[in-house]
Amino acid sequence: MIPILVAAPAVEPISLAEARAYVRLDDPEAAFAEDGLIESLVAAARLAVEAATRLKLIAQTWRLSIATPPASRAIRLPLSPVAGVIEIRVFDGAGLASVVDPQLYRLRQGVQPPVVELEQGFPSAPGGMEIDVVAGFGEAPASVPAPLRQAIRALVARWFEERGDGAAQAQAALPADVALAIAPYRDIRLR
What we know:
By secondary structure, the chain is α+β, with helices and mostly antiparallel strands. The protein has two domains: 9-56 and 141-185; 60-135, no CATH class. Helices cover 32% and strands 23% of the residues. Strands 1-2-8-4-5 form a five-stranded antiparallel beta sheet, with no helix packed on it. The chain has a three-stranded antiparallel beta sheet with strand order 3-7-6, with no helix packed on it. The protein is elongated and about 60 Å long. It starts with a strand and ends in a 9-residue tail after the last helix.
């Protein structure tokens, strides 16, 4: 089950004004000239923090395609945190989709990873199924935990200052201060 992004976050965890202030871009003309760069650095930093923590920070819609529904009637979701299930569709043998009644499944939150439990009477899905979910801490930047927002600020500032300069860019790992800020939020899976 590979998640497919359907709708990206409407906002970033750090606003353009907040990022400008953090990198100390006070001159309005210089700030305006750097806006595109700063916006792209904020988006890249969010993605880096999401990858390192395996968490989605700001509300975004994802689609999960499942070829064969599990026999256990519990579907472990590869995204976290999951705010809700938008819709589940099942496909018959001819590939025709039917939307499943929300009374026939429930999202079990508070477990890691989140689980969608299929109730008795859930329709068969010989052609597979799709689950659309909203993942993220919330729709507003303030809903993202402060240490994760600080990690984004630190990455933006570092990348803004270094701009691809040699040795610093050769390091594959996150900088120590960023790794420390996100450490409590990392989802480390042992398999």
